[in-house]
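Following up on my earlier thread - several people asked me to post the actual chain instead of describing it. Fair enough. Here it is, all 77 residues.
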Amino acid sequence: MLIFLFAYLRYDEVNSLCFYLVFAGVVCSVFSDSISVLQSFYNQNFGLNQYSEMLFYGLFQYLVVLGIIKETVLINE
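Reply from S.P.:
Thanks for posting it. Predicted structure:
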């Protein structure tokens, strides 16, 4: 929830493309963590859990880095 808060607080401070890329990355992080929790505590053999976990984790890192590279700070007057 803390990473969601930090991603949301960037809403009025950066351009919209950067905000949406980072926010989509954070959502991918939540999916990756949820799959990991399901694998650990629920069922270790549900379909393609390892591949989907790494896919969402890779998307998380890629989208956050891409969003930060494309960041332009907005000047509020």
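The mean pLDDT is 86. That should answer part of your original question.
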